[in-house]
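Ex. 9. Protein: 4-oxalomesaconate tautomerase.
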Amino acid sequence: MSRPEEVHCMLMRGGTSKGAYFLARDLPADPGERDALLRRIMGSPDPRQIDGLGGAHPLTSKVGVVSVSESPDADVDYLFLQVAVDKAEVSDRQNCGNILAGVGPFAVERGLVAGSDGETSVRIRMLNSGDLATSTFPTPGGRVDYTGDAAISGVPGSAAPVVIEFPRRARSLLPTGHPLEIVAGTPVTCVDNGMPTVLIAARDLEVTGYESPEELEADQALSARLREIRLEAGPLMGLGDVAGTTVPKLTLLAPPVGGGTVMSRTFIPVRAHTSIGVLGAASVAAGLRIPGCVAEPIARLPSHGDRLRIEHPTGFLDIEARVELGAGSAVARHTAVVRTARKIFDGTVFPRSADPSPRPDSQGGNG
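Predicted structure tokens for 4-oxalomesaconate tautomerase:
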């Protein structure tokens, strides 16, 4: 009997997501072979992902692939891959700012970047979009320290802060060129500050925006409306046919209830997010700064400072966003967020030998 494949892997929590991190050299160079291997590692397709590392939810079925960058503007390259849970699909059509939080520590752990005594900054090129980010985190004695008192909503306890700063962007935040569009009969704002996102007033879809993710997912009429909006918004945002992709994200907005700037409910693309993604929050925050956006009568912007608090189902995310407005244009001049990350295990993962054949008559146990 042949020996199973062995792949060096680190499982990490990055922000409010969890994913498997790999060095690019440890995976097949061919994208098709790589994706097939990752499906077997994560246990997809299977709603429970019972035979792999995945956690049966899009937020826990993620992969980060990291390598030394050839760009003079970056230390490492980071490719994010979303492994579908119950479908044989792996997508590179989007970034993930939560998994991004673990990339800097992972690069130091693997020796791609030398850790400094005190703290280390790692310049990261996100291959999905070509965007750049700088991640700064504590490294006493040159080793990553995951302990600390930084707490983020959606994650129990506390950990060391990972400060992620995004550089000034040259391209417009408004891919359609307008702060307000009517898409599928609904007023929306299409914005991209690292994550293509469609902002929608919850009340325009006949929901409050305070429902739980489970309640929103169970609303079939809402799901149909969201799908219609997403399919029509995709081409308007220059994304083409988005029927088989996870972008653009859709975020419903309502007035804040906890002293923040706005309440949010985000879909990825059909599952309701239990919190909000980092890059999704960056796009929401930038959109709130644009006059004429759908959130203008909803959001409560602070009178001074760059920090905005985006409320979500399990708490809030604080993000700094500064926007420069011009004649018919809006560009992001400053975006920064504090996340945390933690190494869960480091070792060898053994993928299953082959994709399973479906057995319609099989039933899973509860034990």
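Check your answer against this statement. The two ends are 30 Å apart (CA to CA).
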